[in-house]
Design a protein that fits this description.
With about 250 residues, the chain is mainly α. About 80% of the residues lie in helices and about 0% in strands. The chain is globular, with a radius of gyration of 18 Å.
Length: about 250
Amino acid sequence: MMLRALAYAALGTLFTFLMTALGAATVCLLRGGAQSRSQGAMLGFAAGVMTAASVWSLLLPAIDQAQGGPLPAWLPAAAGMAAGAAFLAALDALLPRLRRVPAEGARRRTALLAAAITLHNIPEGMAVGLAFALAADGDGLAGAAALAFGIGVQNFPEGAAISLPLYRLGVSRGRAFAAGMLSGAVEPLFGVLVVLAAAGVRALMPWFLSFAAGAMLWVVVEELVPQAQGRGGTAGFLSGFLLMMILDVALG
């Protein structure tokens, strides 16, 4: 039974990982040149995607899952969000050298962006892994498949939100694609691990979800929005936010 649950969890999260990789592959469709003109729009798009995902994919589910628990429903979400932001702030503080040179500063910013989205993918992989593990005996398989499909479709713009800004900042197509793809690799890993430790993890899910939300929002406010000024950045932010909002609500 355990082996079947692990196999189901691995298959479900493999789909969501492949959707992240597919989104990252959009970097291969871009033509060279005009990087400076589109950089703000790409960063704005990433900021919009991350903001909407933080609210609908992370904070609201964290509050819902904390309902009826021993603590007020808002407390895990608030504390986890603060912890996630503090974690990214501490990570940023470990990179003081990268603040000095503009090119290195851009790499630092995109490294934090990739770290935040990767953290966001961890609880999503755990959710899909648990759903498929519970469906290993045949019950609830349709619901688990629907969850994986919804998260997978949402992962497509998230992969692009990493690879496109990286490419526009001068990173090669191959490395930009690899960064976006690898951000989703944590989903199969944690989807399998959560099955092995299912009993003690469910109660912590609100904290994991809100932690990832805090990390993402810190990067949005600290790094992406200041670099996405102008009409292109504003249009990119609204486009990314609307896309993720529609996907989260329609497929959630």
